[in-house]
Amino acid sequence: MNYIELRSLIRENSNLDFAAASNNLQRVLFDISRTDVLSLITEIGIIPEDIGHDSSEEKLYTKVSDILFAKALKEMNFEVTVLRERSNCADIIAQSKYHNYSLVGDAKAFRLSRTAKNAKDFKVDSMVHWKEDNDFSVLACPYFQYPKSNSQIYRSALNGNVSLFSWEYLYIILSENIRESEDVNLRELWNQSHNIMQQTNMADANKCFIQQQDANIREIIGLTEEQFNNHFNNIKGSIVYRGNEEIRYYESEIARIQQLNREDAIRELLISMKLDSKIETIRRFINQVQR
Predict the structure, then answer these.
(1) In which region does residue 280 sit, left (phi positive, over 0), alpha (psi from -120 to 50) or beta (all else)?
(2) Is 127 in contact with 141 (CB distance < 8 Å)?
(3) How far apart are CA 50 and CA 263, in angstroms?
(4) Of 4 and 119, which is predicted with more confidence?
(5) Of 115-119, 180-184, 258-262, where does the model show the most confidence?
(6) Under a CB-based contact definition with an 8 Å cutoff, are residues 66 and 47 in contact?
(7) Rg of the chain's alpha carbons, rounded to an integer?
(8) CA 1 to the chain's CA centroid
(9) Are 83 and 93 in contact (CB under 8 A)?
């Protein structure tokens, strides 16, 4: 399965009940090959611009990102459960088969046009609470979406030992066929925030530690800096391609709108502003007050 086929499958299922659609997609994705997983995780962290904001398709897309994260963990030889609840809990629980530890996981995908991200978008503080009795809490986020300088998420990750993992790390690990076994214990992959915290002054806790984490992960999985960077260069090509695809989508939208007559342009503007929906929301509130 390639990314275009996955998009089509998400679109086809987006009109179904959310739980049924999620089950359908999980059955399909848990059965794909490692090669397909590698292809999909290089793109799943980017929400396509042609998916409507807060639409059923967007909600299902984000659920698929959780399912793919779970599938990647399965490929690393973990026992994995994708949870059905959508609020106040993690989306994934994974258990080591050999080394008596477990983790909760949450996947993140962002639009490339979204620049004003804040700490709440990463849910690091929430993941501290979602860990509960599990040993680790792991965020799978697009690597290049992490803040490049100071951010509250780094302090929160250090204080709560939340692993700021990425789709790119997963790609490298799966590409190198690294799996847990009786002889291979991967717990230190998920314990990076704790380890980095031991070397960090509280005055520097907001500083980006991703480069230090890169070096630590390279050492854990036994790659040279050149090998590690070669993997990243492969991934960057996919990201650049997707970025240009999203630009072409907006350019085509500009061209389409420029061809609209006045009446159609006004109708399109009203739809985009969701004025009817806002009026209906206010009416429902008034009706509740008058009861």
Answers:
(1) alpha
(2) no
(3) 23
(4) 4
(5) 180-184
(6) no
(7) 21
(8) 19
(9) yes
Q: Is 87 helix (H, G, I), strand (E, B) or coil?
A: coil
Strand order from edge to edge, sheet including 78-82: 78-82, 92-96, 102-107, 136-141, 162-166
Q: How far apart are CA 10 and CA 22, in angstroms?
A: 9
Tokens matching residue 2: 């390639």
Largest CA distance in the chain: 69
Which letter, b or e, does each residue of 271-283 get, where b requires 16 or more Cβ atoms within 10 Å of its Cβ?
Answer: eeeeeeeeeeeee
Q: Residues 180, 98: contact at Cβ < 8 Å?
A: yes
Task: Centre a 10 Å sphere on the Cβ of residue 182 and count the other Cβ atoms it contains.
Answer: 8
Of 142, 172, 171, the residue nearest 62 (C-alpha):
142
- Strands 136-141 and 162-166, sheet pairing: parallel
Cα(100)–Cα(96) distance, integer angstroms: 6
Q: Tens digit of pLDDT for each residue in 36-70?
A: 999 999 999 999 999 998 899 999 999 999 999 99
- For tokens 């477990």, name the residue: 102
Rounded Cα gap, residues 271 and 285, in angstroms: 21
Helix axes 34-41, 167-175, angle to 10 degrees: 150
Please state, in angstroms and rounded to a whole number, the distance separating the CA atoms of residues 243 and 42.
12
Pairing of strands 78-82, 92-96: antiparallel
Helix, strand, coil in percent for the chain, rounding step 5 = 60, 10, 30
| pLDDT (0 to 100) of residue 85 | 60
Give me the amino acid identity at 276. D
Nearest to 82 by CA among 73, 93, 97, 72: 93
